[in-house]
Design a protein that fits this description.
The complex is a heterodimer of chains A (396) and B (132). Chain A has 2 domains: 6-126 and 228-241, Peroxisomal Thiolase, Chain A, domain 1, CATH 3.40.47; 157-224 and 248-395, Thiolase/Chalcone synthase (Peroxisomal Thiolase, Chain A, domain 1, 3-Layer(aba) Sandwich), CATH 3.40.47.10. Chain A has 13 helices and 11 strands. Chain A has helices at residues 28-42, 71-78, 96-106, 121-127, 158-173, 177-191, 205-210, 238-241, 274-283, 302-311, 320-324, 343-347, 353-363; strands spanning 10-17, 52-55, 84-86, 112-120, 213-215, 218-219, 228-237, 249-255, 294-297, 377-384, 387-395. In chain A, helix 6 (177-191) crosses helix 10. Chain B is mainly beta and 132 residues long. Chain B has one domain. Chain B has one helix at 13-17, and strands at residues 24-29, 35-36, 51-56, 59-68, 80-87, 94-99, 112-120, 123-130. In chain B, the strands form 2 sheets. In chain B, strands 6-5-4-7-8 form a 5-stranded antiparallel beta sheet, with no helix packed on it. The chains are: A alpha/beta (396), B mainly beta (132).
Chain lengths: 396, 132
């Protein structure tokens, strides 16, 4: 099916992350520098070793809080001399920067690519809670090829779309709110062990059920928590990574497929794009779900985590609700521990790379109080709707 | 803030202004005789460019929905229902809309609905209501 499994030539050599503020007093660029300089040093490299930069989604709207710093600004600020750089929203979800960076290395353009993601939605919302409304993606009339089919009907947040996926999942498979709650509760329990997590106070089922309804059936506690933060990952050619201070974490397999329209309603409503993403990823490896010791799965909205669990094969499609019932299977000592830093629901909406950062910490045995039992393989999956990607990570 | 309206162009104008004559217009392909949405100058199934808007019955069913309670903008009236409606002409022929004219908590998946238009400026928004 594929001529070459390019990602096997690429490894994560270092990671970094700024403070996770709600809000942070630091500028978006300062947060970015804290993350990227930490990642470069962690990889045992210097500024001069970095010859590529990748970011999703990049500075796609001139400083917008969703992604205020892109490759152009970081290259200028750090005085980088790169052979290749790229950003942009149009890609397989929040992991697209990593996938693009890996391609730049595998094609021989770069040896060490700095991948980063900065977000400052918490501070932005201090002055304007409507800043992230979908209607603000365009000025005046909606001239977007895609969003014009949603915004005139007051689809003003992604939650309205995810809620319709959840409603259909409930209808088709009998998934219940008490099951959905287990995603939020598991993340909160994990966040208690992460000093950087935004929400660490205990949360019970009663707290979840009492949480304000945002868009049925999704409650406030089904939605991730805005923060100000930056996360950075250094990708290195595998031979170069082997000379570094950290055991290389290889990109064992990637999933980046889109076999449906890029649309939020013309796709499979209970699987979205996750099915083809996961099928592609598993087709590029001999590993199986049972080989993994942890999974960091997108929880921008809780329903998405259930759908990723199904797509990735941790349980059959449609049985995600039953699989997480009671929370035992996804707990720290369960079949497949998920979102061990609190995810985005309680840890903070670092939006994509936070999952990779946590996966690496766990694989390297650096997760402190929240360290799981030693394991060498993990999966990271991020996105919802037509935006989705996944990466299987293996520590050498 | 007022409801966001679409920018009209040659591909989408028949959809957004069909309500002026009471007609829900959906693009139809003469090559494979299938409808598709959103409208475009080419059929995504067979790549025929022999495509044009065609009036449909305006009848269909709710295949998913949500009751939005969050006031995303100061002047937004809540709650309201966002739904994905599948038109009866073809399995999988869907569009996003609002369900109006009935209590929000009575909307259900598979509810039969029919189109009703609401004009704002030069746009006729196709909403859906319970089919009597």
């Amino acid at each position: 099916m594929f001529d070459r499994l390019f990602e096997k030539d690429v490894a994560i050599s270092g990671i970094g992350q700024s403070e996770v503020g709600r809000p942070s007093s630091l500028s978006a660029m300062k947060l970015t520098l804290d993350a990227t300089l930490e990642a470069i040093a962690d990889a045992g490299l210097t500024r001069d070793d970095i010859d590529g930069v990748a970011c999703w989604p990049g500075d796609n709207n001139n400083g917008d809080a969703f992604s205020p710093v892109g490759p152009n600004a970081l290259i200028s600020t750090l005085g980088l001399k790169v052979n290749w750089f790229g950003g942009g929203y149009e890609g397989p979800g929040p992991l697209a920067g990593l996938i693009n960076g890996a391609m730049a290395i595998a094609t021989g353009l770069c040896k060490h690519v700095l991948v980063f993601r900065t977000i400052t939605e918490a501070s932005r919302r201090q002055t304007d809670k409507t800043a992230s409304a979908l209607s603000n993606k365009t000025v005046g009339r909606d001239n977007s090829f895609f969003w014009q089919w949603y915004t005139p009907f007051n689809v003003l947040s992604g939650v309205n779309l995810m809620a319709m996926y959840a409603q259909r999942h409930f209808h088709d498979y009998g998934t219940r709110p008490e099951q959905l709650a287990q995603i939020a509760m598991t993340c909160r329990a994990n966040a208690a062990l992460n000093p950087k997590a935004v929400y660490r106070a205990p949360m019970g089922l009663d707290d979840y059920m009492a949480s304000r309804m945002i868009s049925t059936p999704l409650r406030m506690l089904d939605c991730d928590v805005h923060c100000d933060a930056s996360t950075a990952i250094v990708l290195s050619r595998i031979d170069a990574a082997r000379g570094g201070p950290n055991a290389p974490i290889r990109l064992e397999a990637i999933g980046a497929a889109l076999h449906q329209p890029w649309s939020w309603d013309q796709i499979d409503l209970t699987a979205m794009v996750t099915g083809e993403v996961a099928r592609m990823m598993w087709s590029r490896t001999d590993l199986k779900p049972s080989d993994l010791g942890s999974a960091q799965l997108y929880d921008g909205f809780s329903i998405l985590t259930i759908i990723w669990l199904e797509a990735l094969g941790f349980c059959p499609v449609g049985e995600g609700g039953d699989f997480i019932e009671g929370g035992r299977n996804i707990a720290r000592d369960g079949l497949i521990p998920i979102n061990t830093n609190g995810g985005q629901l309680s840890g903070g909406r670092t939006h994509g790379l936070g999952y990779v950062h946590e996966a690496c910490n766990q694989l390297w045995g650096r997760a402190g109080e929240r360290q799981l039992k030693p394991h060498h393989a993990s999966v990271v999956a991020a996105g919802g709707g037509p935006l989705g990607g996944s990466i299987l990570l293996v520590r050498e | 803030m007022a409801r966001k309206l679409p920018a009209l162009n040659p591909d989408n104008i028949a959809f957004w202004q069909g309500g002026e004559t009471g007609s829900l217009n959906i693009h139809h392909c003469s090559g494979c005789r299938r409808y598709f949405h959103p409208p475009a100058p080419i059929c995504p199934h067979c790549l025929s460019q022999n495509v044009a808007p065609r009036p449909v019955s305006g009848r269909g069913k709710v295949i998913s929905y949500t009751i939005n309670h969050q006031r995303w903008q100061a002047t937004l009236e809540v709650p309201y229902v966002v739904a994905i409606v599948e038109l009866k002409e073809q399995t999988g022929l869907r569009l996003v809309s609002n369900i109006v004219g009935m209590p929000a908590d009575e909307v259900r998946i598979d509810l039969p609905v029919k189109v009703t238009f609401s004009q704002i400026e030069d746009v006729w928004l196709p909403f859906f209501e319970k089919e009597a």
